[in-house]
Amino acid sequence: MSSVPSVPTLTLNNGVEIPQLGLGVFQVDPQETTASVLSALEVGYRHIDTAEMYGNEKEVGRAVRESGVPRDEVFITSKLNNGFHAHDDALTAFARTLEDLDTDYVDLFLIHWPLLPSRGDYADTWRALEEIYHSGRAKAIGVSNFNPHHLNRLFEETEVVPAVNQIEIHPYFAQDDVRAFNTEHGIATEAWAPLTQGKVLDDPVVTSVAERLERTPAQVVLRWHIQRGDIVFPKSVTPSRIEENFRIFDFELTAGDMAAITSLDRNWRTGLDPDTNNG
Predict the structure, then answer these.
(1) Per-residue model confidence (pLDDT) at position 2
(2) Pick the catalytic residue: 54, 122, 133, 172?
(3) Residue 193 in contact with residue 270, Cβ under 8 Å?
(4) What angle is formed at CA 204 by the lines to CA 199 and CA 207, rounded to 5 degrees?
């Protein structure tokens, strides 16, 4: 395997370093998860994004153990499932995450969705995460799918500013307003569904750039994310695709390429709206 540049890291607002590229395991069957993560770690990934909701934390933990890569060299993120927003339930669920991952700590733990009031008070949930953070069992804490009004409430009622906000971002849903809000408040932005579930890969703008650069459409879109400054973790269970997605640090998009891809924004979601999702 030819050498590739190292994955750059970003510094979170509490000083923790996070690799800008990782492997996502959303919708990866538990039976395929260990092999997928092992392939990624062999290629050079050092960031794995999982969640209680995905049902594959045990397999992620197994892969990290079997890989031979020291635990402190692998950045592991997990997320609190929607049914455990009550303060004590959140603490119990987090303990179960550590048990399933077979680790003493996670590098990042997120509230997966803010949810509506009928499913719990996310400010109270956040206070539980603050306890987890202060205990050292999560090196950083953050949120997922939070809009600015959700974050403003956390600023007003709690103490720790989230280190990360993980939101849906791709060329068809650029979310520049939420990204700007995150940046203004020192919150790193992570992009889920970075490849628009594959739908953007046939877009003529993307394929034209890919052909000129002799890269794949997926590599071009992932590079767009990286150059925007977001953290991204594409999903795959195919070793060749996992490696392909990793090889995005030895080329750059021009300002014109970046503008052309950004202009594809059509405010089109692939997933749920945080303001209407009640879990």
Answers:
(1) 45
(2) 54
(3) yes
(4) 85
Q: How far apart are CA 4 and CA 109, in angstroms?
A: 29
Active site includes 54?
Answer: yes
DSSP three-state, residue 159: coil
Report yes or no on 277 lying in a domain.
Answer: no
- Backbone φ/ψ region at 68: left (φ over 0), alpha (ψ -120 to 50), beta: left
Q: Give the model's pLDDT for residue 115.
A: 82
Report the share of the chain in percent with pLDDT over 70. 96
pLDDT at res. 27: 81
- What are the pLDDT digits (tens) for 93-136? 999 999 999 999 999 999 999 986 666 689 999 999 999 999 99
Nearest to 133 by CA among 96, 154, 159: 159
Q: Which residues of the chain have pLDDT under 50?
A: 1-2
DSSP strand E in 117-180: where? 141-144, 164-168
Q: Is residue 108 part of a domain?
A: yes
Domain tally, the chain: 1
Supply the pLDDT for residue 118. 66
Q: In 3D, which of 158, 84, 89 has the Cα closest to residue 115?
A: 84
Domain range for 183:
9-195+230-238
Assigned token pair, 2: 């030819």
Q: Which residues contact 28 (CB under 8 A, 6 or more apart)?
A: 36, 54, 56, 235, 237
pLDDT at 1: 40
Q: Find the CATH number of the domain harbouring 86.
A: 3.20.20.100
Q: Given CA atoms 168, 173, 178, 182 in this order, what sign does their dihedral have?
A: positive
- Convert 32-56 to b/e letters by CB count within 10 Å (16 or more is b): ebbebbbbbbebbbbbbbbbbbbbb
